[in-house]
Amino acid sequence: MDPRTTPTPEAVSIQAGAVKLHGLLRLPLVASSIILFAHGSGSGRLSPRNTFVAEHLRQAGIATLLLDLLTGKEEEVDAVTAELRFNIPLLTTRLAAATEWALQQPRLRGLAVGYFGASTGAAAALAAAAEMPEVSAVVSRGGRPDLAGAALLRVRAATLLIVGSNDPQVLGLNRDALRQLHCEKELAVVPGATHLFVEPGALEQVTTLATAWFTRHARPRGAASPAVSGPE
User: What is the mean pLDDT of residues 196-200?
Assistant: First the structure.
């Protein structure tokens, strides 16, 4: 099967402490890395924007795992209170659990690991990357890296922050976060884009930037990237 075809994503269930997380795994025929998506602000594994990015990454030979970091019941609570989406320690712990799950899967073993975070999920991605040396690359889309706090100082994964030029508050927060990072880093500003990158061509620019970043930086620590076969 050609890796540019579009197979149905595989539903997976991941134990994270006392709860189970639901995810969608996209595994191309040959993969060099796997990128875990950390959604934020009430989003989840079915996010159309992150699905768009994930499918293009798969076409580039990059496996992806889109996750719900909250359970169904937690989502119901968060829809009313909006407090769990800002519980960065909780989101970080669950993203780390999902990463451990991926590292233990025989068919994913040996793949480089990266994170793609959006909104508050970007803070969880950076906080988890600060604790997990296996993570070699992080991309943040319209993220809130400031919410990662002191963890920013410990991030060693190459980090790309992508923000729309018409998202001034978040752009300022990302500029401040960029100064705190002590890893290979870059801030990419998408002209004319707002927070959700809904403008024509904006999400395509995010996808191009993310694909190039992961292709360049998502590599197993201390080893050349192997090729891992996916399902036929």
Answer: 95
Mean pLDDT of all residues in 77-91: 83
Task: With a cut of 90, say whether residue 103 has pLDDT above it.
Answer: yes
Report strand pairing: 10-16 vs 33-38: unpaired
Q: How confident is the model at residue 2 (pLDDT cuts 50, 70, 90)?
A: very low
Where along the chain do its domains lie? 10-221
How far apart are alpha carbons 22 and 71 in whole angstroms? Answer: 8
Fold of 10-221: Rossmann fold (3.40.50)
The predicted model scores a pTM of 0.89
- What is the per-residue DSSP string for the chain? --TTS-PPPEEEEEEETTEEEEEEEE--SEESEEEEEE--TT--TT-HHHHHHHHHHHHTTEEEEEE-SS-HHHHHHHHHH--GGG-HHHHHHHHHHHHHHHHH-TTTTT-EEEEEEETHHHHHHHHHHHH-TTEEEEEEES--GGGGGGGGGG--SEEEEEEETT-HHHHHHHHHHHHH--SSEEEEEETT--TT--STTHHHHHHHHHHHHHHHH---TTSPPP-EE---
Q: How confident is the model at residue 91 (pLDDT cuts 50, 70, 90)?
A: very high
What tens digit of pLDDT does each residue of 158-184 get? 999 999 999 999 999 999 999 999 999
CA-to-CA distance for 120 and 39, rounded, in angstroms?
Answer: 7
CB 97 within 8 A of CB 21: yes
Question: Dihedral of CA 129/130/136/140: which sign?
Answer: positive
